[in-house]
Input
Amino acid sequence: MRLIEGQTALVTGASRGLGVEIARRLAKRGLDLVLVARSEEALNGVARDLRAETGRKVTVMVADISEPTAIAGLADAVARRGGVDVLVNNAGVESSLRFHERTAAEIEQTIAINLTGPILLTRALLPGMLDRGRGHIVNIASVAGVLGVPFNEPYSATKFGLVGFTRSLRLTARASGWSVSASVVCPGFIGGAGLFAELQRTYGVSSDELGVCPLEEVGPAVIEAIEGDLPDVFVVQGDIRQLVAMGAVDPVAAEQAMLGSPGTAMFRAVADARSANSIEQGVVR
Output
C-alpha cells in the first residue's frame, strides 16, 4: 500500500520504546497518528513532541490491549473518527526467566498482550479497512518469533504465533481478493529503546558481540513492509534467514549454534538476576 499524506496510522505500545520511533517515522511520511497505550501521561508527552516535530494530527487513546472489552471500546472510538489506514501492533512485554519459576498469571498476561491482543485488535479494525478498500496491518514480532530463545518461552511462543498469524492472514487476503494486507517486522537486538535497551539499563547487559541494530532502522523497516507489501522484514545484523533455514534442515546444528551464542549467555544472566531478586524479595513463583 502506498503511504499518502493524510492517511491515519494507529500504533499500540506508543508511549515508549520502538512504538515512539515507529510513530515518528510514519508521521514524517505525512500520516496522522492514533497513539495507544496504558499510560495517559506518557502518551500525552509523546503526542506533544510528535505534533511539534512533524506538524501532524496526533490523537491519544488510552487502552489496555490485554483486555477484550478495552479493544472493543478502542475499535468503536476509532470507527467514530473515520477509521485507520495502517495498524501497527507493537505493544509487547518480555520476561527472561527460568520457565518453572514463572507464575501462571505472568504467562497469561504475556500471551494476552503479545498475541491475543494484536489478533483481536486486527479483527476489530479489519472490517473498516475492507469497507474503505485499503489498509495494511504490521505486526511487530521478533527474531524470537522464528528462532527459539532460551529463558523466554512465553515471549518466544507469542512471537512465533504472531509470525504465523501474519502469514496466514496474508494468504487469506490473497485468496479472498482483499485490498488489505499484512506484514510482520522482526527486530533483533535494538539499541537506544525497546526491550533490549531496558535490559541494558536494568541489568547492565553488554551489547558486545550481540549484533545490535540502531533504533533508527526500525521505522524504515515498517514503511518498507507496508509500501513493498512484504511478508516479513528482519531488523538484524547478518543474514538471520540462514539460521532459520538451518533450523528446518538440521535442527540439532541450529540448536547447538543457539546454545553457543552470546544471546543465550545474556538471557541466562538476566534470568539468574531475576531469580536472585525474587528470592531476596521473598517472591513465590
